[in-house]
Write a structure and sequence with these properties.
This protein has 237 residues and is an alpha+beta fold. The chain has two domains: 63 residues, no CATH class; 122 residues, 60s Ribosomal Protein L30, Chain: A, CATH 3.30.1330.60. 25% of the residues lie in helices and 15% in strands. A four-stranded mixed beta sheet has the order 3-6-4-5.
């Protein structure tokens, strides 16, 4: 008796008397093989009848209810990593340094400004420009000595005349008196920038009646024959 080989089933050969039976048996056998193949390639993903994983409209693979991360495949879920907790950084603390302490400006050095007025016949006699000894002594006592420890910035000297005589003459007389006083200060060692001004008969400080006798009027106008000295200086440190 001959045999009928069934190599797909890997079974023992059947007797030839059974070779006419295999049409249905072969169909069942092929179905069984297909089922085995499906079982071997089955994942916990939804598949079509070709064992191809079904994707959604967003190209995502459909999981079945039994899917676990261990069933993940490349192309669907790839190599899954443990979830990483998103660490939220604390808000950045901006440390604002305190404002710097305001710089205290050094106190200005104390000033030793002085003003002196030399008037009357003790300063200048009528129609003269010579500085009287009394006026020189006053300048030394009231200006030069107190300014010994001061740095003199500048000295302004103004000369004046009374109203007797021509205005142009009185202007020259007042200028000369201012220059004489400046020269005396320089001769006594005072180093400064001098400004001299002749004021003529302006800025009178007297109230004399022109009807007075001439000698009396000259004496009355004596305060107008004067020199003012303005010293600007700072105390030496």
């Amino acid at each position: 008796m001959g045999t009928c080989p069934l190599p797909l089933l890997n079974l023992m050969p059947l007797p030839l008397t059974h070779c006419k039976l295999p049409s249905m048996l072969i169909a069942l056998t092929v179905l069984a093989v297909s089922a085995v193949q499906a079982a071997e390639t089955a994942f916990d993903y939804l598949q079509d009848n070709r064992s191809i994983i079904v994707r959604s409209g967003f190209d995502l693979c459909w999981h079945t209810g039994s899917w676990t991360p261990a069933d993940a495949v490349l192309g669907c879920d790839g190599t899954l990593q443990p979830p990483i907790t998103k660490i939220t950084a604390p808000p950045l603390m901006v440390v604002v340094p305190p404002p710097p302490e305001p710089e205290t400006a050094p106190a200005p050095p104390p000033r030793c400004d002085r003003h002196l007025s030399l008037a009357g016949d003790d300063a200048f006699q009528f129609n003269e420009t010579n500085l009287r000894p009394a006026a020189q002594a006053t300048i030394t006592k009231e200006l030069i000595s107190p300014l010994a420890n001061c740095d003199i910035e500048r000295i302004v000297v103004k000369g004046y005349a009374d109203r007797l005589g021509a205005a142009s003459y009185n202007q020259q007389l007042s200028e000369r008196r201012a220059e004489i006083v400046s020269a005396y200060l320089t001769s006594r060692g005072v180093k400064a920038s001098f400004e001299t001004h002749g004021m003529g008969a302006t800025e009178s400080i007297t109230h004399c009646n022109d009807k007075m006798a001439h000698p009396a009027l000259i004496a009355c106008l004596a305060p107008d024959r004067r020199v003012s000295i303005e010293v600007f200086a700072v105390r030496r440190q």
